[in-house]
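Researcher: Structure prediction, please.
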Amino acid sequence: MRNNFNKPTTQKLAERAGFICSNPLCHRLTVGPSDKDTNKSIRTGVASHICAASAGGPRYDISQSKLERESISNGIWLCATCSVMIDKNGGLDYPADYLKKWKKDHEALIKQCLEGGKRMMIQFMTQDNQTTECRAIIKFLEQRGAFFMDYHQEVLQYVFESIKETRTYLTQVSAKLATDSPLEIIVDSMNHGCRHFMNTTHPTMTRIEMEYSLGALRKIIGINLLDMQKLYGVSVSGGLEKILPIK
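Model: Predicted structure follows.
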């Protein structure tokens, strides 16, 4: 018997993930407007099981009860592509511990970095002429390969130092911006992401754990760069363009 999630659980998983794929190495949004009907949206996300919903499935845990298998704690929100990917080879390449880390980091960053109500109102706020500041921020980030270089080229010590420098820079920038202005919200969101990365990484973590933590941070930086691009008309290109969210 398959223990599926009910509709309220599926909806909550999507909301807690901000309708963004929880895979730290993926940048797909999972909801958007329908071009054919202004009253409808299109969802491409999937409420996936961390441990299989039925015997024989990927990462099946015989010790789980029916309630545990269909509970929100056993679910993770992913795009349609990643939901299929994690179950290939019987889930061998994506054990439950990996998926739990994806979910924990992603939800924590969504909570800390998307600024709740302020973030929801950002598109309706008045934008000051801060394109010069935006370009300076982008220029700074372009010099930090930790945000876009291939993961196998990264050394945790150097990554940590680069993120620390970025946080110091963003703190200085934020102090000069108008309180609760759109750009301040964006900069603070990036800064919170850097802080989360620094607080949750350690020298003994494995290479794959580092990649997942760094991927989660890159996702938040990309979301904020996209907002900056939309609100201020600045260009994001080169390596940074690779971390912008995609539909």
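Model: The chain has a mean pLDDT of 90.
Researcher: Thanks, that helps.
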